[in-house]
């Protein structure tokens, strides 16, 4: 992948004061390669280019899951976060805001059509293994704007969730069935199935290194099936809904209702879809 910003656009010759980066890798069949080339290298290139043209504040869209870095893309994000903070420490005229959102609405919308068509809602374990405070794209965009305009967001790591209580997959499924007016029907998949599959893939990687990305993709699925997208309390080692900040006005229920009416146009998951 060629380095970003190696070609100088006429637009980039203008002075910029704030740069916001929301570059992220997709969960594709090149999971490991993408993580370092995009989450780290391309994001770093945007910082270098921004500073070259006068940027004095950098807003980084990261992810709340980097609190517990078990995956390549999380390690790549953390490496850049550390370099961004170091950059600000060495330059009094440069600041940052690191935004770590919880789950996006669209990442939870993959089963809306299945439920609408009478299929069961698929979840792992009892549906209570994890929880999140999902946030809409609009509310997140507003929060990112606050990072430019509000002093208390400067040189801070900012975890952020949407409004309301934290929701488990079970509660998300119940919400969907209520909206479609059908009796809840769940397919509960034992989390051990994923552990078994990942174990096999890890073994095969030792023989066939080309399967590394398939193994990483399996680990990504396993992570999101069991880990909450909430603040990880360093004192207890547990996820805390109470300590996860809430922001905005858009709710997941409103999003589900809109998708039921209008579909996922503009919200397609592509390679990141699991169901």
Characterize the structure shown.
By secondary structure, the chain is an alpha/beta fold. The protein has a single domain, classed as NAD(P)-binding Rossmann-like Domain (Rossmann fold), CATH 3.40.50. It contains eight helices and eight strands. The strands form three sheets. It has a four-stranded parallel beta sheet, with helices on both faces. Helix 6 packs antiparallel against helix 7. The longest helix has 22 residues. The protein is globular and about 60 Å long. The relative contact order is 0.16. The N terminus is likely disordered.
Question: What are the salient characteristics of this protein?
Answer:
275 residues; alpha/beta; Rossmann fold; 4-stranded parallel β-sheet; disordered N terminus
What does this entry show, briefly?
With 275 residues, the protein is α/β, with parallel strands linked by helices. Helices cover 41% and strands 12% of the residues. It has one domain: NAD(P)-binding Rossmann-like Domain (Rossmann fold).
Describe the protein's topology.
Layout lengths: L17 E4 L9 H22 L4 E5 L10 H18 L5 E7 L10 H5 L4 E4 L12 H13 L6 E5 L8 H12 L5 E4 L1 H17 L4 H15 L4 E2 L6 E2 L11 H11 L13
Parallel strand pairs: 1-2, 2-3, 3-5, 4-6
Antiparallel strand pairs: 7-8
């Amino acid at each position: 992948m060629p380095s970003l910003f190696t070609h100088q656009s006429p637009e980039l010759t203008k002075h910029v004061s704030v740069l916001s980066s929301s570059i992220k890798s997709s969960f594709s069949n090149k999971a490991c390669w993408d993580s370092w080339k995009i989450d780290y290298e391309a994001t770093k290139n945007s910082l270098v280019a921004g500073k070259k043209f006068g940027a004095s504040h950098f807003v980084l869209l990261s992810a709340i899951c980097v609190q517990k870095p078990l995956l390549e893309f999380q390690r790549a994000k953390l490496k850049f976060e550390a370099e961004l903070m170091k950059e600000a420490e060495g330059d009094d005229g440069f600041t940052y805001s690191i935004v770590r959102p919880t789950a996006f609405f669209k990442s939870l919308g993959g089963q809306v059509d299945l439920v609408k068509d009478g299929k069961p809602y698929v979840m792992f374990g009892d549906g209570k293994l994890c929880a999140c405070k999902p946030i809409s794209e609009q509310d997140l965009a507003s929060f990112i704007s606050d990072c430019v305009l509000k002093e208390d967001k400067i040189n801070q790591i900012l975890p952020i969730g949407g409004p309301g209580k934290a929701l488990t997959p079970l509660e998300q499924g119940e919400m969907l069935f209520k909206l479609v007016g059908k009796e809840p029907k769940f397919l509960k998949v034992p989390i051990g199935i994923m552990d078994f599959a990942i174990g096999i893939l890890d073994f095969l990687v030792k023989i066939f290194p080309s399967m590394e990305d398939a193994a990483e993709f399996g680990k990504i699925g396993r992570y999101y099936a069991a880990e909450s997208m909430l603040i990880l309390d360093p004192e207890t080692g547990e996820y805390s809904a109470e300590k996860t900040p809430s922001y905005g006005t858009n709710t997941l229920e409103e999003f589900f209702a809109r998708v039921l009416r209008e579909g996922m146009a503009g919200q397609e998951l592509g390679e990141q879809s699991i169901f």
